[in-house]
Amino acid sequence: MQKPRSRLAANKSSPEDMQEGKQKQPLNLTALRQTSGFMIRLLQIQIFEEFFEYFSADGFSPAEHSALILIRDNPSVTQSEVADALRIQLPNLVKILSRLETKGYIKRKRSSRDKRAVELTLTARGKQVAAQASDMGDDFNRLVLAPLGEKEQSQFLSMLNRLVRPRPNKRVQD
Q1: Residue pLDDT, tens place only, 38-81
Q2: pLDDT tens, 95-134?
Q3: What are the residue boundaries of the structural domains of the chain, listed by start?
Q4: Are the C-beta atoms of 6 and 44 separated by less than 8 Å?
Q5: What is the spatial distance between Cα 27 and Cα 11, in angstroms, rounded to a whole number?
Q6: How many Å apart are CA 166 and CA 29, to the nearest integer?
Q7: Residue-wise pLDDT tens digits, 12-46
Q8: CA–CA gap between residue 80 and residue 123 (Å, rounded)
Q9: What are phi and psi of 56, to 5 degrees?
């Protein structure tokens, strides 16, 4: 998988500026750094870039990793429930699930509760991979949160959980 490129390379100078001896001044982001949306977006990009590098040997994207863990923790969850929980459009999730199914990590079957729905379960191989992915995810999260002390890490995650609101009319438990 190719690592996404950041569009936030504000401090890079063009070859023309370097030849003329001009060094571009860094952009003033003072006002933007006071906005939660901008800072959360920067953090998201940073984490995704680091995630792709950290998980490159295993070839997991953040969405594949999240889907695998969600399926592990919710046996017989439906595709629609996974899409809602991860806030992914169903057609995009179906592509992710197809990759996981092709790798032999998940199985899909018609729901006995609702014949219109498709339930997802992990295969034996999927359970092994999910356990490895979970361990790697825990290690990765420790690295991401390392600049914060233990108490700050707990507070930060608690604040994020308070800020992320459930989607209206969607069944997602804490």
Answers
A1: 999 999 999 999 999 999 888 888 999 999 999 999 989 999 99
A2: 999 999 999 999 999 988 888 899 999 999 999 999 999 9
A3: 60-150
A4: no
A5: 7
A6: 31
A7: 555 555 556 678 899 999 999 999 999 999 999 99
A8: 20
A9: -60, -40
Pick from 40, 36, 33, 42: which is nearest to 8 by CA? 42
Find where tokens 């992320």 sit.
Answer: 164
Between residues 60 and 167, the one the model is more confident about:
60
Q: How far is CA 27 from the centre of its chain?
A: 28
Considering only CA atoms, give the Rg of the chain: 20
**Dihedral pair phi/psi, residue 106, rounded to 5°:** -135, 160
CATH among 1.10.150.670, 1.10.10.10, 1.20.1290.10, 1.10.260.40 for 60-150: 1.10.10.10
Q: Which residue has the tokens 């750094």?
A: 33
Sheet holding 77-78, edge to edge: 77-78, 118-122, 106-110
CA distance 54 to 36: 26
Global pTM value: 0.76
Residue 104: strand, helix, or coil? coil
Task: Kindly state the percentage of the chain with pLDDT values over 70.
Answer: 84
